[in-house]
Amino acid sequence: QEQFVEAGGGLVQPGGSLRLSCAASGFTVDYYAVTWFRQAPGKEREGVSCITITDSSTNYADSVKGRFSISRDNAKNTVYLQMNSLKPEDTAVYYCAASYYCSGPGPAPAYEYWGQGTQVTVSS
């Protein structure tokens, strides 16, 4: 079964850091752009960051710019999200999805594979 397996979530104090991983299972992540999403209770899903296939260029939601960093290790079939200076409003379930391109001004991409998510809670 093709899917992502996310890991690395947990409880962290405000100002702390976490590194999330998103391991592809049953497919090769090299051929896909990968987006990290998050969804907090009662809120809509939000695209947090995306990394492209070809040149590994990245984009970020305004709410996380300067604090989060996405990267990929194709040899490990894994994408990472380094989250620094965490805030309580970053609390959410984080999950990743694969598509052929990152979301932008044009038509929204179709997401081929998803993960189940990992909970991130930022609280003192």
Describe this structure in words.
With 124 residues, this protein is mainly beta. Helices cover 0% and strands 48% of the residues. The chain has strands at 3-7, 10-12, 18-25, 33-39, 46-51, 58-60, 68-73, 78-83, 92-99, 113-114, 118-122. Strands 2, 4, 5, 6, 9, 10 and 11 form a seven-stranded mixed sheet that branches. A four-stranded antiparallel sheet has the order 1-3-8-7, with no helix packed on it. The chain is globular, with a radius of gyration of 14 Å. The model has no long low-confidence stretch (mean pLDDT 94).
How are the SSEs ordered, and which strands pair?
Blueprint: E1 3-7, E2 10-12, E3 18-25, E4 33-39, E5 46-51, E6 58-60, E7 68-73, E8 78-83, E9 92-99, E10 113-114, E11 118-122
Parallel strand pairs: 2-11
Antiparallel strand pairs: 1-3, 3-8, 4-5, 4-9, 5-6, 7-8, 9-10, 9-11
In short:
The chain has 124 residues and is mostly beta strands. It contains no helices and eleven strands. Helices cover 0% and strands 48% of the residues.
Low-confidence stretches: none
- Helix/strand structural class: mainly beta
Estimate what percentage of residues fall within beta strands. Answer: over 45%
Question: How does the major sheet shape up?
Answer: 7 strands, mixed
Count of separate DSSP helical elements: 0
